[in-house]
């Protein structure tokens, strides 16, 4: 619970809207992998844009794993 309060306070300090801060918290997966919104409604809620900077970064696949899978499929 303390982590939730810290996350909401962090968003408010950044100047985010209260509704966006709560929506971001509700859409963020917890330690067991499901978000509070997913636990409540049984599905993920739609967010306008990812608010986390990690979600905005490009993730490149591991080249070695890609080559191994490519060789395996040939």
UniProtKB/TrEMBL annotation:
GO molecular function, one term: nucleic acid binding
Protein name: Uncharacterized protein
Annotated source species: Gouania willdenowi
